[in-house]
Amino acid sequence: MIYTGSRIIFFLRPLLIALLLVGVFGLVYLRSSVMTLEYSLGDLEKTRRNYLRERKMLLAEKTSLLSFERVEASLSRSRGFVLPARIRVIHVKNRKETLPYNASLERKLTEP
Amino acid sequence: MNKKRAIILNTTIIFSFFVVFLRLTDLMILNHKSLSERAKLQHVKVEDIRVRRGIIFDRQGREFALNIELESLYCDPEILDLNNDGLKRLASVIAKEPMFILSKIHNGGRFVWVERKLEPDTVEKIKGLNIKGLGFLTEAKRFYPKGKLASHILGFVGIDNQALEGVELKYDRYMKTSGGKIFLERDAIGRTLSSGVDTEARGNNVVLTIDEGLQHIVEKEIDKAMEQWKAAAASVIMMDPFTGKILALSNRPTYDPNNAGNARNPEKRNRAITDCYEPGSTFKIIVGTAALEERLVNPGTLFDVSKGSVEVGGKAIRDIHKHGVLNFKEVIQKSSNVGSVTIGLKLGKDRIYKYAKLFGVGEKTGIDLPGEVSGWISRPERWSGTSIGAISIGQEVAVTPLQILRAYSAIANGGFLVRPHVVSEVISPEGRVLASFRDEEMNRIISEKTAGTFKNILKGVVEEGGTGSSASVDGNEVAGKTGTAQVINPETKRYSREKFVSSFVGFVPADNPRLAIIVVIYEPKGQIYGGVVAAPVFRDIANQALSYLDIPLDSIPYNDHLLVSR
Lengths: 112, 566
What we know:
The complex is a heterodimer. By secondary structure, chain A is mainly alpha-helical. Chain A has helices at residues 2-65, 68-79, 100-110, and one strand at residues 89-92. Chain A is rod-shaped and about 110 Å long. The termini of chain A are far apart. Chain B is an alpha+beta fold. Chain B folds into two domains: 47-80 and 102-208, Alpha-Beta Complex (Penicillin-binding protein 2a (Domain 2)), CATH 3.90.1310; 212-421 and 440-548, 3-Layer(aba) Sandwich (Beta-lactamase). Chain B has 20 helices and 23 strands. In chain B, strands 3, 4, 5, 6, 9, 17 and 18 form a seven-stranded mixed sheet that branches. Chain B has a five-stranded antiparallel sheet with strand order 11-10-22-21-20, sandwiched between helices. Strand 1 of chain A pairs parallel with strand 23 (562-565) of chain B.
């Protein structure tokens, strides 16, 4: 019995030491991985901030370019667009019941 | 011997542990506070949460005011390495005098702003100079992408984004937000670790009742009028007569809110609500509706104005053109001063005052913009002998263009006094509605019958033979009134013979009003009459606005149509 116990201890001791070392290295590795991830996240946050900043600038530029004044000036100058006299324009509203498809179908059905 | 060695070894070990214990006590107990603070300074970076004002949208969701981020240049004078050549180059890049930069640097301290909110290409140029001791910090800048458009409504902010005018000021408590600080971990070489929190705080957004399309139409036409009449100033307001929603509001002279610091005070003034003028004939609706409401007259009541003048308190009030016998409708249609004074005399001063007050004269409209004035009408007991005649034709009273527009809106909507407003909703950055406009103050001031009768009379003003015929719009009936008022010369305290205020106020389509518009042109040159100067501006604005809003024609007078589907 004594012999067997000593043998177990003989094998267990290095195993425990190895486990302890692996554990310690594991902890260090995990901690360093977390730190690396935090660095990456920090970099990504910085990139995100830069993109958001650029987005804001682009939005401002887009809004400025889409202003009525610019669009009207650009269309009338370069494309020769002119607004027609209101009195000569009839607006045809888009209504489901008067869609051409329905009308043609009805005509087909009633055709002799 | 071994025992002696053991004792020495033990003593050394115990002593060593004792020394370590003492040091630990020093580090962890005695100097803990100061040391931990020093450690924190080394590995923790404190950053301000970036505070961004809410965005201002028009009623269709188009951005009128937003934030962009620009770099601001600062320097640390203690480590600044700036020679003469570098100073000159820096000064030329930021377009300032070298002395200006030196004066800032010598102000003292370790942090000095050199120039705030620089354009990105300027920043690149400065970085290219490689001057030690200069640095950049990102700051938010308020940007108004439409430039001068609606500048008197939007207002502007200062260099530190503090609200100074307009909606920016009135709704500041909603749009601004509080910041705070966040703590970021950093390593030995200054790299920061993720904080995991949002480093930007956004204020609530504001939705205006203004429509960019309508505002553009108004601004385009007001510019044309200013050019044509070489006027000193002008104001135009467009409002929904049923709800009080301001759809467009513009003044001239104006300014660009992106460069508000360079604008002069007269340019920044929102004349539509801060400047009073004598309304002249547009005020005749007060006397007219009062007489109808009090059943003193009906549209057919006849007035003999053939003498061309009437004497009140020893002072003669004249018509511009002599008329014969006019009925009540024609008195308004032809804007007869003699007829209006006769009606005013029938009413008496108490009733004129009562109805002026009912229509909101001498009271603020309550519009949600800063700086509104109440206008002025004195109490009847303080009126002089001539006052009843003068007030009947719109003199001796001071009103803002908005007050007159509100009074005409009451005719348009069947007798209710609306509360004008420019903001419809305040919404959180996540899109939740935090506040919306509710009008609990709308009250009836005249009967529906009186409003209807007077509406028909106002239609006559714009018909052939009326003073406002040049305000008529093809395809839709217009109801309105012209006004021509003399300006008081501040030096002589008498009415000027050269300076006038020409105005036209009306609504369209007359029977189903969608737009109430007032046009006020201050000191036009060449012509003075509201029917000649202001009425065509009303027509041009109304024409385009009706088209923009897809408001159908009342009648189709021509046969040669273009067919456009939409």
